[in-house]
Each structure stands twice: as C-alpha cells, then as structure tokens.
C-alpha cells in the first residue's frame, strides 16, 4: 500500500483527512441510517452495498438520466463544503449518493459514467482502501500489465477525482471488515449537462 494521504499520488487526485469532526460524522451516519436504502444494482447484478441517490439518477439498465428527489437539507451544507474543497460552485454538485457498506462490501473496478465529471467523496466510519489501476499496454506474448496505486480513505476524510485520475484510471474500494458509510457528490460533464437538458 502506498500511504500518501494529503499528497497527490496521481494527477487529478486530491485528498485530505479530518474534513469533518467526530460529532459531524456521528450526525451524518445517523441521518444515512434513517434513509430507505436499496442494494446497488448494475444490470442484472446486485451489490452488497446499500445506496440512495439525490438530485439526479442514472439507470444502469437503460442508460437513462432522470431527476431524483432533491438533496435533503442535512446534505446542503456538506455539499457546499465539498464544492469548496473541490474548487467548484455548490450548484455544480448536482448529484449526491449516500452509501452504507456492511462488512464484506466493496466496489469493483470501474470508472464513473461519462455523464459525470468531478467525483468528490467523504468517508465515514471504518477506514477503507481506494485502489487505482491503469493499463500499461500488452506486448506480444506478454501478460497484460497494470500500473497500480492504493490510497487509504480515513474516517472523516474527503477526496476528489478529476482530470487524469478520473478519466484514465479505474478505481475500486476494497471490501471492508466493519461498517462504513460514504457520501459522494458529482458534477455533470458537458455530455451529462446536454443529456439533462434534453430530458
């Protein structure tokens, strides 16, 4: 594991610890636990983590983008602070996804959908490891090669994915051994903005 919290490990990756204090963390976890969360679904596959989206919703089955329930009041101040961390205007943070990971839950390798641009995540509860990989190319007769990195996500920390790390690298979250919660804010890409206006 490469432990470089607070240091840009990959261009476009920004992280910092202690974005929240312990009292704020407890309030947010309690608020998430009052929500009606649903298992994450990707086509015919159902994940172990439980989620609820606000602002906008993307249907992985149909590829459709639709408006979702507005961000609740208890998320608005956090959205504004997350936007400030990312150097964005609060209104650019058009989607929020709250997630609860019970023991054994994680996220497989992926890139966020092209309709989104910046990804800003806040970790709550148990720490986790965010893994990154990028294909280095494959020579004739050689195994596929990957460039890899791992960044610890400490409790109450925040991260932003933009630019190179957002578009050129895949990321995943290793399975957790204890309950963890997260809140992820996203902005629209140009394509997402066009799609939202067309709907």
What do these coordinates show?
The protein has 199 residues and is an alpha+beta fold. It has one domain (13-198): Alpha-ketoglutarate-dependent dioxygenase AlkB-like (Jelly Rolls, Sandwich), CATH 2.60.120.590. The protein is 20% helix and 41% strand. It contains 4 helices and 13 strands. It has helices at 22-33, 73-86, 163-167, 190-198, and strands at 13-16, 38-42, 45-54, 56-58, 65-67, 95-101, 107-110, 116-125, 128-137, 145-153, 158-161, 170-173, 180-188. The strands form 3 sheets. Strands 1-11-8-13-6-3-2 form a 7-stranded antiparallel sheet. The longest helix is centred in the middle third of the chain and has 14 residues, at 73-86. The radius of gyration is 17 Å and the shape is globular. Mean pLDDT is 88; it is low at 1-7.
Summarize the structure.
The chain is of the alpha+beta class and 199 residues long. Helices cover 20% and strands 41% of the residues.
The N- to C-terminal Cα distance equals 43 Å
The radius of gyration is 17 Å
Number of helices: 4
- Mean model confidence by pLDDT: 88
Form type: globular
């Amino acid at each position: 594991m490469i432990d470089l919290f607070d240091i840009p490990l990959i261009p476009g990756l920004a992280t910092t610890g202690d974005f929240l204090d312990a009292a704020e963390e407890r309030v947010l976890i309690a608020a998430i636990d009052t929500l009606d969360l649903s298992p994450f679904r990707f086509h015919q596959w159902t994940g172990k983590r439980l989620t609820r989206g606000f602002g906008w919703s993307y249907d992985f089955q149909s590829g459709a983008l639709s408006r979702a329930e507005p961000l609740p009041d208890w998320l608005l101040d956090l959205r504004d602070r997350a936007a400030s961390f990312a150097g964005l205007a609060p209104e650019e943070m058009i989607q929020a996804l709250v997630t609860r990971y019970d023991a054994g839950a994680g996220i497989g390798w992926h890139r966020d959908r092209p309709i989104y641009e910046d990804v800003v995540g806040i970790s709550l509860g148990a720490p986790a490891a965010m893994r990154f990989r990028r294909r280095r190319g494959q020579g004739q007769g050689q195994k596929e090669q990957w460039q890899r990195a791992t960044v610890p996500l400490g409790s109450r920390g925040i991260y932003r994915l933009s630019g190179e790390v957002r578009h050129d690298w895949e990321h995943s979250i290793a399975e957790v051994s204890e309950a963890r919660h997260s809140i992820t804010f996203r902005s629209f890409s140009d394509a997402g903005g066009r799609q939202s206006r067309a709907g």
